[in-house]
From TrEMBL:
Keywords: Metal-binding, Oxidoreductase. It catalyses: 4 Cu(+) + O2 + 4 H(+) = 4 Cu(2+) + 2 H2O. It comes from Methylomonas koyamae. This is Multicopper oxidase CueO. Monomer. The keyword Oxidoreductase applies. It is an enzyme of class 1 (oxidoreductase). PROSITE patterns: MULTICOPPER_OXIDASE1 (PS00079), MULTICOPPER_OXIDASE2 (PS00080), TAT (PS51318). It comes from the Bacteria. The lineage of its organism: Bacteria, Pseudomonadati, Pseudomonadota, Gammaproteobacteria, Methylococcales. GO terms for molecular function: copper ion binding; oxidoreductase activity. Pfam families: Cu-oxidase_2 (PF07731), Cu-oxidase_3 (PF07732). Residues 446-483 are annotated as: Disordered.
Amino acid sequence: MSNHFSKSRRQFFAQSGVGLLAYASMPGWLQAMENMGDMPKMAPFKASASFHPDVELDLFCRPSEVAILPGQATRVQRYFAKLVKGPANTLAEIPGSYLGPVMRFEKGQKIRINLHNQLDEATITHWHGLHVPAEMDGHPLYAIDKGQTFVYEFEMLNRASMNIYHPHPHNTTARQVYHGLAGAILVNDAEERRLELPSGEYEVPIVIQDRRFDANNQLQYVHGMHDRMMGFYGDRILVNGRADFQLDVASRAYRFRVLNGSTARIYKLAWDDNTPLTVIGTDGGLLEVPVNKPYVMLAPGERLDIWADFSGRKVGSQLVLRSRSFSGALPKMAERMMGGMGGGEHGGGRGMGMHASALPMGSDYPIFTIKVARQVGDSPKLPDSLAQIKRYTLHDTANPDKPVPIGISEGPMRMVLNGRPYAYNDILPSERIPFNTVQLMEIFHAHGGSGGHGDKAGGEHGSDAGKAQGMRHGNREESGGRRMGGMGMGMGGMNHGGGQDEGGHKMGMMRGMDHGGEGKGSDHQMGGMGGMGMGGNMGMMMSMAHPIHLHGQYFQILSRTVGMGEGDGYATVKDGFIEGGWKDTVLVMPGERVRIIKPFQDFKGLFMYHCHNLEHEDMGMMRDFLVG
């Protein structure tokens, strides 16, 4: 274990009031979280003589410097690309940005991309949202060292949509993305072209990120374990790699292709004059019909296709896209430390504690400003209908009574899925997916959301995942209140009731923090993982929102169910979800169960699923599906 990790972990336990006894008592899963299994190295793929591409690119990852703020240039990592073969509009640079060029492909094209690693560390690129063979998906298995080249070859099977390319190396994805390695992919098809949506200068990519800079304009990143546990939050909003972004527009309709490129920050997007947001598409392309929303939630890795019509606005007038205030996405203590919701712009400045931030998540702040710079006459009209989508039902699934579980497990130093940190070749029975099937899946908080909903969402999925975790969920509550799971320490199994076991030891091996009194409530127990439990009054101590991303084909959201007692924070976000289209990333709030239907077609092999809070991914909140 490195000195850096040892120091940050000791600080975390000391600052949390848990103590070094707990730290010293659980080397097993801490080592698992740090090592997460040995990742073998696969030989890089080479160009195939039998593959005849319509489009070929050279894509370079290399260090660079970019002027982001006034003064000294900022050191970054960047994607550079060169078109070898294909249409001239395949690549479009974003002027003055560290972001990679926008790639534009056509459905049905055969594509070859030669990835050249010119960094001083290993990397590999994932095509977030694209339906490609497993060996072309950017699995960390295929990471290449400095000086090596990996050749991707695939056919574009996606419908018209906005997708992403970004690094996916083991344990360092978040840092590489944070330092600049990311770009947008736009796919076009005939169905979309028939609609004659705004294009050219009227189709604008909007990549929203947050960053933190030091006095010399250099990027600052994670400083300790709390930044990993909660996710890293910057104090400056960048749009398309630029601070204080302003877009000059004409008085007509535009198409904004919006991507949340932050590593952890969730946005609640709304116009400052309360004009409804008109959404025409999400991750996987166009919706069936336009949807108007007062605001839209956008988690890391998610995309929005927004119709923005400035017809009738006067030259010189301005409109601001803001992130409005909300709560419930972070543990309540973390929200208080960061500055919290509702404290005015930027949450009233710096909050108290380790998470103090000049730009707290959940506060109200501007994203970018639109200025009407010129009048024009004609403007395209918003279509009444957009695209045809085949809607899946339970009857289409191979497992309508036995959903594939994706259990979110949270605790100090521990963010995992299905009770296990990432390890190569550690496939649970529930993660073995029959080829060419459509699967019902359920994403849930394995600690019962904020800790007390020990219902069937918690573990009774008819699969072996619960057995592998040693997980059992009950639903017993005392009249005095819910028994909360969420924090605290137990070394050899777990009792989330907050009470005392028969041996007289509260919370496993140590007499930790018992805020739940004599509770005999929720008997959610996890053996073998070293548990975490903290009783009732601390409420949602560790439970937080997670954007869950599934590699491979897009999925559809079947339902959302929120547990009792989650109303305060959930009420501030619930009207901002877009459910009707194709997705590859879904935001799961504390206490929420989300059922999705996902096809596993065309390709066998390993396909990852993970939290797209990238700090969590690098902590091991990631697993593999084996399709075959």
